[in-house]
Amino acid sequence: MPGRPTRAEAPAVRSGLRRDLEAILRAFDRAAEGTGVVGRDLLVGGLRVRLRAAGPALLEEFWPSLSHLGAEGAGDVSKVDVDRSPDLTIVLWDSASTGTELPSIPWMFESEQDPRTTRVARGDGLRMAYRASEHELVALDARENLAVLWVPDHKEISVHVRGAPFLVIWHWWMRARDAHPIHAGAVGEPDGGVLLVGRGGSGKSTTAVACLLEGMSYASDDYVMLKASPEPYASSLYCTAKLDPVQASRFPELEPALRGGSPPGEKVLAFMHAFRPDRVIGGFPVRAVLAPRVTDGPRTTARQIRAAEALAALAPSTLLGLPIPDASAFGVMADLVRRVPSFRLELGSDLSSIAPAVRGILAAI
């Protein structure tokens, strides 16, 4: 489910952004002097992303959501392959664990800023944003393929950020590579799967978890990276499942994967790679789009729907749910629903009937 309701300002063209970035990077270097640098390599949609964290504290908060992308395999994902250059480097730190504050950048913290607002700036090949609701700074230098993430305290990260780290960075950086983070679940088999689309509460997580428990491959319950050509392809970004407490109680098998500590009323996170690493997959071709909907019936059924209906389920939650909305993703989503069939998945109360219905769709197309 997308994070807290926020409002992103139109990007302001600002001079001095490179100076701001240089000051931020000097602060990272000071933080790393005291803590050392912890490095991890990820493979995201076939691209190598190198994480360089000042100390282990912040990275340890994010790693359970990203562990399935570890580039060195399940045996030891903590190593960096120094002989291979990354396609993107992300430096990250928090002030609480390193004792290093973010430099003063006045435009980010103007007194009149609404706490739900994301303040965005661009210029000189840079993009920078301060998400007030999450107290999170992100920046991307597209020319240098260098990104930054800072938060005040690794212990105060919200469930939304912990379960979907670097979402703004993926959004900015992948766009130039004709790929977009899409608000959708993804399950199937290695040779092809389905996207699960719809607003929060429509049943995407229930469907994704039920399919994993019945032996299907799991790529996401919330966000995937969608690339349209040469064929629609969904790449996994996170191995988390976000469940409200009632949903979680319907899947007692997930108890070992659940991570506590969520505030009352918040969703809880289940880390699927730690739970069933054999069923978490890096991605697959998209064969169909499914729009789940919870019903009062006992069994799950499916019926084909028009492309426009599928797009109406997919596009609004993506465009409004991304921390920084961007209409450029709309074309990729519209192209997807034109190229693959779409179905309404009427979810019944019998959870064991969900996976057979999804498998039946894949077998029929």
Give a verbal description of the structure:
Mean pLDDT is 88; it is low at 1-7 and 73-78. This protein folds into 2 domains: 7-177, Phosphoenolpyruvate Carboxykinase, domain 1 (3-Layer(aba) Sandwich), CATH 3.40.449; 180-364, Rossmann fold (3-Layer(aba) Sandwich), CATH 3.40.50. The chain contains 11 helices and 21 strands. Helix 6 (204-213) packs across helix 11 (354-364) and helix 9 (307-321) packs antiparallel against helix 10. By secondary structure, the chain is α/β, with parallel strands linked by helices. The relative contact order is 0.14.
Tell me, briefly, the overall form: globular
Provide the CATH architecture of the largest domain.
Answer: 3-Layer(aba) Sandwich
Distance between the termini: 28 Å
Tell me the total number of β-strands: 21
- Radius of gyration from the CA trace? 20 Å
Q: Largest beta sheet, briefly? A: 9 strands, mixed
Q: What percent of residues adopt helix (DSSP H or I)?
A: 25-40%
CATH-defined topology of the largest domain: Rossmann fold
How much is the average pLDDT?
Answer: 88
For the record, the count of structural domains works out to 2
Q: Give unreliable regions as ranges.
A: 1-7, 73-78
Which structural category fits the helices and strands? alpha/beta
CATH class of the largest domain: Alpha Beta
Give the DSSP E fraction (strand runs of 2 or more residues).
Answer: 25-35%
* Total DSSP helices: 11
